[in-house]
Design goal:
ten-stranded mixed β-sheet, 7 helices, alpha/beta, single chain, globular, 20% strand, Rossmann fold, 203 residues
Length: 203
């Protein structure tokens, strides 16, 4: 069975954990303050979610990275080579509310993250929704909330597409990191921030 870790227990990390817990999918969640600080959260989420260290979470088959952009270096530095495991980049180059952008010199933000995660198969996903939509039931108004994903690695994309489907969302592959991830990369990505729903014709 594929193991899952989450680095970051803020709004996005907790929302992802909530979706996993809803389906009884096991995952280890971590933050910078240590497992002891996550007792209340994991109790709320249920038995499939456990608290661990950053290293515990980073050792899993699929590793979600969900920290503020300014904390990325701290979150990923010093970890062993990922050895072909999947890192899901949920991060956006934005500061705190009112979300002014951080200058990354016109690069695709996931390309920056990939440089911080040597050996990882990096997928951009779970980043374009507001956290309350990401935490909500994927079913909406008779349809499914859409989650976009992009990567240069076809195998990794297939694994994340399968997870997205298992969670009840409708996944849309936008292509590679350099071009496809920019479509839903805030700020400026035309698909970023929209709570889009896939509807069945005739429904």
């Amino acid at each position: 069975m594929t193991s899952i870790g989450i680095i970051g227990a803020g709004q996005i990390g907790a929302a992802i954990a909530r979706q996993l817990a809803r389906h009884g999918i096991e995952a280890t969640i971590s933050n910078s303050r240590g497992p002891h600080s996550l007792g209340e959260l994991v109790t709320q989420l249920g038995p499939s979610i456990t608290a661990g260290t950053r290293e515990d979470a980073a050792a899993k088959d699929i590793v979600f990275v969900a920290v503020p952009w300014t904390r990325l270096t701290e979150a990923l530095s010093g970890l062993p080579d990922f050895g072909g495991r999947i890192v899901v980049d949920t991060n956006n180059p934005l500061q705190k509310q009112p979300l002014p952008p951080i200058d990354i010199c016109g690069r695709a933000s996931t390309a920056v993250v990939a440089e911080m995660a040597p050996g990882a198969r990096v997928v951009k996903a779970f980043n374009h929704h507001a956290f309350w939509n990401l935490a909500a039931e994927p079913a909406k108004e008779g349809g499914q909330r859409i989650l976009f994903y992009a990567s240069d690695d076809a195998w990794a994309k297939a694994q994340i597409a399968a997870l997205i489907e298992r969670l009840g969302f409708f996944g849309v592959d936008t292509g590679n990191i350099e071009t496809g991830s920019r479509l839903f990369q805030p700020p400026g990505g035309p698909l970023a921030g929209h709570n889009l729903v896939k509807m069945e014709l005739g429904a």
